[in-house]
Amino acid sequence: MMKNKRIKPYTAAILAMFIILMAGCSLGTKPSSSPFLDDLTISIKDTPNTGDTTAHAYELQIKDSAGNLVDVDRVRINLSMSMQGMNHKMKDEMERTGHGIYYTKVYLPMNGDWKAIVSLKKDNHERRFNLEL
Fold first, then answer.
1. How far apart are CA 96 and CA 32, in angstroms?
2. Which of 16, 53, 96, 116 has the most CB atoms at less than 10 Å from its CB?
3. Domain span at 17
4. Residue 56 bridge partners (DSSP)
């Protein structure tokens, strides 16, 4: 009889720790992609400013598999250029200028081979694209 009374509190304690562990793990989950975002393609156009070579205007178009322009909730662009002794980074949220078209103007500290990570967010889902500019 004494054995059963000891097992119940231990079982309850183990179950409580398991529930707390599972709840804690679910709080730290990162947004994942979705079928909607997986279906999208992007194209980006870089228009350097002729008067100021550090000013670049980026226009991004987002299309579905049928080639139709589509909107998302948010578009961010993270730019980086790695050189020995320097680590240039910039990030900006792109502004919607038309259906499925987003724009930003940035001032790059120097010309060179820049890499971009474009992040699309729709609802609680996010998808990233790696690009070379």
1. 22
2. 116
3. 1-30
4. 48, 106
